[in-house]
Amino acid sequence: MIAFLRGRLLEKHPNRLIVDVNGVGYDVAVPLSTFFDLTAPGAEVSLRVHTHVREDQLALYGFGSALEQHMFERLITISGIGPKLALAALSGMAPADLVRAIRTADIARLSSIPGIGKKTAERIVVELKDKLPAGAAPAVPGAPAPTPAEADSRADLLSALVNLGYQRATAEKAVDRAIAADGASADIEVLLRAALRHLAR
In this structure, is residue 145 part of a structural domain? Predict the structure, then answer.
């Protein structure tokens, strides 16, 4: 099993990275919380990794902190929650806020995450409330400091939001509002954060 990767960031997209480790490219799915904390392509990156094995697939999920990985691995133990929904949960709010929402049984906050309805939110609280760390964990030692990447296309922003579970029409409106406010040439992180703020209203 792959548990850790350190190498050159070859490609960076919302929810997905390609990391070059000694000439081998690893395709790694990541939550937005990790994506926002990464440097531009070309720099060194360090990721904690969860290797998810199924009969028809081997997938890698990467995280910038121990807390992110811990939350992901706890979430996928719950019936009805797979890796994609667990990533959406970590993308919908900061890991420490997710821990807080579960500990305080904030069903409304948890239900605001795309793909997580009231019943699933209640199940998360019941199963995880007493199994979570008290606070946030530090990032992986040696992880790079955040640096905005070059802007990507409107289609990439839209794809990222749809992959998080937002309806396409709703996502398009949020992207258009973000671009109108910040400009099409703004960094993708800026536009994505702005779009998520519009969606949270």
Answer: no
